[in-house]
Specification:
about 100 residues; mainly alpha
Length: about 100
């Protein structure tokens, strides 16, 4: 069995330990079981994305026509996006 040493934020480590022990018991091995499940879930998720990305031969061709239903021009969409971002910035700065 292999070993991996990882460095994560203290708060994440605390939550992970607490959850793993509550779920798998407070004895030895609970962190290993939880880690194995977390690694497996992450690998499964990332593997799907990588497999999809590797099957795309031409990325431009893959996205060509995706916005054909939009009636606005590219410039109009850029202006709209900048207004949305500006509004979110103002909301963020004014929040406590």
């Amino acid at each position: 069995m292999g070993g991996i040493k990882v460095y994560i934020p203290d708060e994440l480590e605390k939550k992970f330990r607490e959850t793993a022990m509550r779920l798998f018991g407070y004895g030895r091995g609970s962190l290993s079981i939880a880690s194995e499940k977390a690694f497996s879930a992450w690998l499964s998720e990332v593997s799907e994305v990588l497999e999809f990305a590797e099957n795309i031969e031409d990325p431009v061709e893959a996205i060509y026509g995706m916005l054909s239903h939009v009636k606005k021009t590219g410039v109009e969409l850029q202006h709209e996006a900048s207004k949305i971002r500006a509004g979110k910035t103002i909301e963020y700065k004014s929040s406590p």
